[in-house]
Structure formats: C-alpha cells, structure tokens
Amino acid sequence: MTFNGCWKVDRNENYEKFMEQMGINMVKRKLASHDNLKITIEQNGDKFHIKESSNFRTLDLDFTLGVVFEYSLADGTELTGSWAMEGDVLKGTFNRKDNGKPLITIRTVQGDELIQSYNYEGVDAKRIFKRC
C-alpha cells in the first residue's frame, strides 16, 4: 500500500531522450515534458486502480498484478503487458504492439517521492513525483 495516494510530477531526468527513442515526434515530446501529470494510486491487495490526469488526457486504469492487459500511452503508442511486485518495487513489463519491443517501467517510493523509471532500447529515464 506504499504507492497509495496522489502524486504530481515534479521533475524529469532524460525523459526527452527516452521519448525520442520511443519515436515520439518533437512537438509531442515538448508537450509531454510539461504535461503536469498527476497520478492517483489505490491498491487493494493485488488489485490497483490508477487515475492519470494531465493537460492532455484523463485515464482510469484497473489492473491486477501478474495479469496481462492492454494500455495506450498519451501519444497513442499501444502496449500489452503486466505489473508485478518485486519486494517494494512495482515493475511493469510491456511490449509495444507496433514493433514488439519491450518497455520496462519501475515505480518505487523513496521518502515523499514516487520515482517512475523507464527503459526502452537501452535509454533510461525517470519521472519524479511528489505527494499532492
């Protein structure tokens, strides 16, 4: 239940380079870098409810740990995969539907920050969130 709560993006590390590697065009990268993303996480056992809201979209997402589901990124990239708990780490293993390449997302809580790390084709990035 460590992840429960409201989290607002505070800063990014290497996020633009990551999005470029993902094939996201420059205009969308610039917009995404300033999206004011807010994530609300509710965990109940192995079930999660996530609400993402940004300048561009609001999305409600329900998933169960270990169960494969489909998800679309804000730029329209479609993924399929699942989340798993590895100790205190929430790890998402997804594959792009268009090219089959893996995207790994890791969420950890350190103090009052939620750190969301990404890896795609050798490019790492982070988005750091503060509690709302």
UniProtKB/TrEMBL annotation:
Keyword Transport assigned: yes
Domain of life: Eukaryota
Keywords: Transport
SUPFAM superfamilies registered for this protein in UniProt: Lipocalins
Annotated Cytosolic fatty-acid binding proteins domain residues: 5-22
Single GO term (MF): lipid binding
Family under the similarity heading: Belongs to the calycin superfamily. Fatty-acid binding protein (FABP) family.
Name by which UniProt lists this protein: Fatty acid-binding protein, intestinal-like
Lineage: Eukaryota, Metazoa, Chordata, Craniata, Vertebrata
